[in-house]
């Protein structure tokens, strides 16, 4: 048996749809890790993302004509790649390469034919975003290939790290085009697992019985599942982000993961302890209470009111929004609640814009003794009559009545500092919360609860979230209250959330302070400087697998 040698890459390419393009949690994974990556591999990590500029500036990206200039010229002139090099405007300011992938649409049929002939990837049933994602994946790999052919040789080790099914085609292309580049594929959630959960099928109770290929056919997910499964098999190193998703991968993709890349956080986002932190928290609470009182026509106190929030993508079941609203209805009707509680549901939806009535009240700095019409939402929606959150609240008769201690406010916008109501960023408001709740059903990791405790805000989550599972294994007081969720205990879990909220409202200031300290301490254990070691394992695994692949020459068969 050949002894594996310890290896570390000289250069790393990371490809993701969310490089300089904020969509969801993967953006947080990459952008928060960038600073630590720069410390370990200074300017040797090249993040590749899609270029949607079309003549417009991207505030997340600063182009630098002097950066990698010799190669960029060759890539444009010799290889015909329409790319730009610059810096990603996040802590660490890593090198980012944005690629215009649209020219490859003309070649997509021949590219799909190549993928079928070489890797049996079924693109026949593709629809929706499959073409766009695949052409970006192919273009990203062409970027890495171009750089290697102009700068690389057998003396340097290069790793190409692809995130999610949208980048899979690039991994497969490089296996053929530049076999000396080692490949890593990370699935942050299997496409078929997310689809099973999103279609209200019991994922966890029956995971052992599901066949990924069969379910892909049933749920019309064949093409996405096919390319994800083949890439999991052929990549030199297959990874995911949590133990719970590792089990899902083994069952639905028919192969175990090689390394679990636990997601960390970068605490440079958090204000410094002492006066800066206290000021930021006070500012956030003042804004949250101001908007609530103005919308509701109330006079709730900034210090006496318990402020709670949830956030994330609008995945009604997967994110546990349905359970949260149900538990809040139970809380609303519980006579033992004797303290004012505001819950903000920060979930971006299809908004028209800020509510004019609320906006005018805020501009005039007037809190009237009567509420705005429909005092449950801050922005107008295009599909307000069909909105699931509002529909559930209507069904449960939740209308924020004046005599109720609990008030629930739906904030359906991106909190980017320019929403017209809060005009503050998500993190700048998050710090003002007393408690956050994320009762996820399908959550491979779960950045929102980690972000919460990073800002010293205790949270409630579930053991179906990768982060919740990790926190529950830490032991002791963590500031993270993890409830047990299954496919069949919805009512019990909702009751447990209600109980935990009531228990929190009864805590003394000293008890709350200790809980906040525990949350901050737990967040300190989840910093990237601790979790980055898992990436070193993945790089080493990929490079050793590449060496074995080159040695045996089996480029047409999986490495598993």
Molecular structure report:
It is a single chain. By secondary structure, the chain is an alpha/beta fold. Helices cover 42% and strands 14% of the residues. It has a nine-stranded mixed sheet with strand order 3-4-5-2-1-6-7-8-9, with helices on both faces. A six-stranded parallel sheet has the order 14-11-10-15-16-17, with helices on both faces. The model has no long low-confidence stretch (mean pLDDT 95).
In short:
The chain is of the alpha/beta class. 42% of the residues lie in helices and 14% in strands.
Instruction: Give me the side-by-side strand order of the main sheet.
Output: 3-4-5-2-1-6-7-8-9
Could you list the spans in which at least 5 consecutive residues all have pLDDT below 50?
A: none
Strand content: 5-15%
Q: Whole-number radius of gyration?
A: 24 Å
Separation of termini? 16 Å
Shape, per Cα inertia axes = globular
Find the count of extended strands (DSSP E, 2+ residues).
17
**Mean residue pLDDT:** 95
Structural class: alpha/beta
Largest sheet: 9 strands, mixed
Number of helices: 19
| Approximate helicity band | 40-55%
What is the strand and helix layout of this fold?
Layout: E1 11-15, H1 25-40, E2 45-50, E3 61-63, H2 69-77, E4 83-88, E5 95-99, H3 108-119, H4 130-151, E6 158-163, H5 168-177, E7 182-187, H6 191-198, H7 212-218, H8 222-234, E8 237-240, H9 243-252, E9 259-260, H10 275-296, E10 306-311, H11 321-332, E11 341-346, E12 351-354, H12 356-363, E13 379-381, H13 388-395, E14 406-411, H14 426-430, E15 435-437, H15 447-454, E16 459-462, H16 466-474, E17 480-483, H17 490-505, H18 509-525, H19 528-552
Parallel strand pairs: 1-2, 1-6, 2-5, 6-7, 7-8, 8-9, 10-11, 10-15, 11-14, 15-16, 16-17
Antiparallel strand pairs: 3-4, 4-5, 12-13
